[in-house]
Structures are given as C-alpha cells and as structure tokens.
Design brief:
Length: 256
C-alpha cells in the first residue's frame, strides 16, 4: 500500500513547521550528496565517516570510546548524546529520504495543526530522541550508526492514529496484477503499516537489531510514544476544534 494523501482538511492552515522540517531534511541530504559524491545510496568511505560522526551509534551513546568496525578503529564523537538529535536529519539514500518525507508531508500537517507549531516542533524532536533510545535499549553494543527521521515520523503516525483514527487515507493498493485506489481509514492503514513493516520484521529479523538495515525498534518505540502523546492530549483537551465535512461524508477531526 502506497499512501498519496489524507482526507483530513484543516481549514487552510499552513503547516510551516512541517514544511520547514522537510526543507531541513532535504538540505542535509544535499550536504550528504556533496560530501559522499553519491546520490541513490551512501555506501562509500566518506559516508561511513560521516555517519559515524553524526549518526547515533549505540556503543558510543552508552559510554563507549572507540568504534571498531569494518576492519578499522576510530574514536566516538565528542558528544555522542547529541547524535540522538543530529541522526534524525540524516538519511542513507534517496529512497530513505523520499519515503520519510512523503509520510511527514501526508500526516505531519494535521498533528502540527492539533498541537500548534512550537509544541509540534518540540515533540517531533523528542519523539526522534525517544525512538533512538528505544533502539539503543535493545542493541546497546551495536557499532552500526542509526540515521533517519523514521523515529520522529513514527511518533507522528502514532499520534495520528490516536487523534484521527477515522480519517481516510487515499491509498494506491497493488497486489500482483490487482491495483486500485482506495480510501482507507487511518486506523487500518496505520495498523497495516505497523504490523507488516515493523512488528513482523522485528521478530523475524532477530528482535529488530538492524534487520535489513532497518532499526525496527526505533519505529515501534516512536509509534508507541507518539500514540501515548496523542491519547493523553485527547483525554486532556477533547475534540476542542471544529470538524469539516468532505464528499465522502465523514468528519475530518473525528476522535470517536
């Protein structure tokens, strides 16, 4: 399933923080392209040095001083805890960036609208750090740098599921020779994403330890933190903003 947009209007609200985050991520990606001389996937020596310096290496974050990997040795960053933040703006290649920015664009605007710009920026960064810590908690000795906005975006998806479970997602569905456009409620789309792309690979791939190059526990941790944030917000403030109808006959901010 490939999401195209959500059918959740917000009365012309301009998601400036969401747009700004996309711009920053793309700008960092272009810096990575210039640094590595690669575009589709960063896999050379220059990329390794860059990711070890700015990516979140569990071994370093938990107190290690020397990284021994790929037949070489190098010191851990001077401030490894800062990499929990810097790593959320780095990506391993074009497809990695594109997928994350698509989900950020589709789901981030409504979460920004609900929380407000300043709070949204703060919790976006907090979700990213929390997701990184969740990954480190189960793989503390790993020397593989974790990079990507996936943890923060998983937080957005969790909050979206808590706040807008009945909002519809316009989705391109393809199964073999069968394909069509469908309008799927967010709770079912996000549940499918959570199970098929994270929970099953987490267990099949050895409890999420960089299985296939993906830190599944970061996704699961980010989603859980985001869902908890959204659930608490809903309980505290309720459906305090107006709802809007669409041609599909549902309400945009449906918290039922």
């Amino acid at each position: 399933m490939f999401p195209l947009r959500d059918e959740n209007p917000h009365a012309g609200y301009k998601p400036k923080v969401t747009i700004g985050l996309i711009i920053v991520n793309v700008a960092v990606f272009l810096f990575e392209v210039v640094t590595t001389g690669q575009f589709w996937e960063f896999s050379n020596a220059a990329a390794a040095v860059m990711f070890f310096e700015w990516g979140a290496v569990p071994h370093c974050v938990t107190g290690g001083e020397i990284i021994e990997a790929y037949g070489g040795r190098m010191p851990c960053p001077a401030n490894p805890h800062l990499t929990l933040l810097t790593s959320t703006f780095m990506h391993g290649g074009l497809m990695h960036l594109g997928g994350n920015m698509l989900f950020l664009w589709i789901f981030g605007d409504n979460i920004e609208h609900r929380f407000g710009r300043a709070k949204f920026l703060g919790i976006y960064l907090a979700w990213g750090v929390g997701a990184g810590l969740a990954h480190i908690a189960i793989d503390a000795g790993s020397v593989i740098p974790a990079v990507g906005a996936s943890g923060s975006i998983s937080g957005i998806l969790g909050a979206y599921m808590a706040l807008f479970p009945r909002s519809r997602v316009t989705t391109f569905v393809m199964f073999g020779f069968f394909w069509r456009m469908m309008h799927i409620e967010a709770r079912w789309f996000l549940l499918f994403w959570l199970v098929m792309q994270n929970i099953l690979p987490f267990f099949i791939g050895g409890f999420g330890v960089a299985g296939g190059g993906t830190a599944f526990m970061a996704h699961l941790g980010g989603f859980a933190i985001g869902y908890g944030t959204g659930y608490l917000y809903k309980k505290m403030y309720g459906a305090s903003k107006p709802t809007y109808g669409t041609r599909y006959g549902w309400r945009g901010d449906d918290w039922r």
